[in-house]
Amino acid sequence: MSWEDELGRLMTERGPALVGYGYLLTGDVSAAEDLVQDALVRAFTRRRPHDVVSVEAWVRRILLNLYLDAYRRRRRYDQVVPLLVPEEGRDAQDAAADRAD
Fold first, then answer.
1. Is the dihedral of CA 10, 13, 15, 21 positive or negative?
2. What are phi and psi of 54, to 5 degrees?
3. In which domain, by residue range, is 75 found?
4. Could you give the number of structural domains in the chain?
5. How far apart (Å, rounded) are the C-alpha atoms in residues 12 and 15?
6. What CA–CA distance (Å, rounded) separates 36 from 30?
7. CATH number of the domain that 19 lies in?
8. CB contact set of 22 (below 8 Å; sequence gap of 6+)
9. pTM of the prediction?
10. Which of 34, 50, 84, 87 is the most buried (most CB within 10 A)?
Protein backbone atom coordinates (compact mmCIF):
# COMPACT_ATOMS: atom_id res chain seq x y z
CA MET A 1 0.00 0.00 0.00
CA SER A 2 1.43 3.38 -0.99
CA TRP A 3 1.61 6.31 1.40
CA GLU A 4 -1.00 8.20 -0.65
CA ASP A 5 -3.48 5.36 -0.14
CA GLU A 6 -2.63 5.17 3.55
CA LEU A 7 -3.10 8.92 3.98
CA GLY A 8 -6.40 8.91 2.11
CA ARG A 9 -7.73 6.00 4.12
CA LEU A 10 -6.60 7.55 7.39
CA MET A 11 -8.30 10.86 6.68
CA THR A 12 -11.47 9.25 5.40
CA GLU A 13 -11.89 6.86 8.29
CA ARG A 14 -10.21 8.64 11.21
CA GLY A 15 -9.92 12.30 10.13
CA PRO A 16 -12.72 13.60 12.38
CA ALA A 17 -11.30 11.67 15.35
CA LEU A 18 -7.86 13.21 14.76
CA VAL A 19 -9.37 16.70 14.63
CA GLY A 20 -11.28 15.88 17.81
CA TYR A 21 -8.03 14.91 19.51
CA GLY A 22 -6.46 18.14 18.31
CA TYR A 23 -9.45 20.04 19.68
CA LEU A 24 -8.99 18.31 23.02
CA LEU A 25 -5.43 19.61 23.10
CA THR A 26 -5.97 23.14 21.78
CA GLY A 27 -9.57 24.03 22.60
CA ASP A 28 -10.04 25.62 19.17
CA VAL A 29 -11.34 23.92 16.02
CA SER A 30 -9.21 25.87 13.54
CA ALA A 31 -6.08 25.39 15.66
CA ALA A 32 -6.91 21.67 15.89
CA GLU A 33 -7.26 21.40 12.10
CA ASP A 34 -3.93 23.19 11.64
CA LEU A 35 -2.30 20.89 14.17
CA VAL A 36 -3.62 17.78 12.40
CA GLN A 37 -2.40 19.10 9.06
CA ASP A 38 1.07 19.80 10.49
CA ALA A 39 1.19 16.33 12.02
CA LEU A 40 0.19 14.68 8.75
CA VAL A 41 2.79 16.64 6.83
CA ARG A 42 5.46 15.66 9.34
CA ALA A 43 4.34 12.03 9.33
CA PHE A 44 4.08 11.53 5.59
CA THR A 45 7.03 13.61 4.37
CA ARG A 46 9.52 11.60 6.37
CA ARG A 47 10.28 7.93 6.10
CA ARG A 48 7.95 6.00 8.32
CA PRO A 49 9.43 3.33 10.52
CA HIS A 50 8.51 -0.14 9.31
CA ASP A 51 7.46 -1.32 12.74
CA VAL A 52 4.58 1.15 13.03
CA VAL A 53 1.49 -1.00 13.42
CA SER A 54 -1.11 1.74 13.56
CA VAL A 55 -0.60 4.86 11.47
CA GLU A 56 -3.26 6.65 13.49
CA ALA A 57 -1.41 6.08 16.75
CA TRP A 58 1.78 7.35 15.16
CA VAL A 59 0.04 10.51 13.90
CA ARG A 60 -1.56 11.05 17.32
CA ARG A 61 1.86 10.90 18.94
CA ILE A 62 3.17 13.46 16.46
CA LEU A 63 0.12 15.64 17.23
CA LEU A 64 0.90 15.54 20.93
CA ASN A 65 4.59 16.31 20.37
CA LEU A 66 3.78 19.28 18.13
CA TYR A 67 1.33 20.65 20.69
CA LEU A 68 3.78 20.24 23.56
CA ASP A 69 6.58 21.90 21.58
CA ALA A 70 4.37 24.90 20.83
CA TYR A 71 3.17 25.07 24.45
CA ARG A 72 6.72 25.06 25.77
CA ARG A 73 7.74 27.71 23.23
CA ARG A 74 4.85 29.97 24.31
CA ARG A 75 5.65 29.50 28.00
CA ARG A 76 9.29 30.36 27.43
CA TYR A 77 8.35 33.43 25.38
CA ASP A 78 5.94 34.58 28.10
CA GLN A 79 8.79 34.44 30.60
CA VAL A 80 11.09 36.53 28.41
CA VAL A 81 8.66 39.24 27.27
CA PRO A 82 8.47 41.08 30.63
CA LEU A 83 12.26 41.39 30.59
CA LEU A 84 12.18 43.45 27.40
CA VAL A 85 11.93 47.21 27.90
CA PRO A 86 9.84 49.05 25.32
CA GLU A 87 11.66 51.85 23.50
CA GLU A 88 9.07 54.52 24.38
CA GLY A 89 9.65 53.94 28.12
CA ARG A 90 13.33 54.87 27.93
CA ASP A 91 14.70 58.36 27.93
CA ALA A 92 17.25 59.67 25.43
CA GLN A 93 20.18 59.51 27.84
CA ASP A 94 19.67 55.79 28.54
CA ALA A 95 19.32 55.04 24.83
CA ALA A 96 22.55 56.96 24.08
CA ALA A 97 24.41 55.07 26.83
CA ASP A 98 23.21 51.74 25.43
CA ARG A 99 24.34 52.66 21.93
CA ALA A 100 27.73 53.71 23.24
CA ASP A 101 28.18 50.37 25.00
1. negative
2. -115, 115
3. 3-100
4. 1
5. 6
6. 10
7. 1.10.1740
8. 31, 32, 33, 35, 36, 39, 63, 67
9. 0.68
10. 34
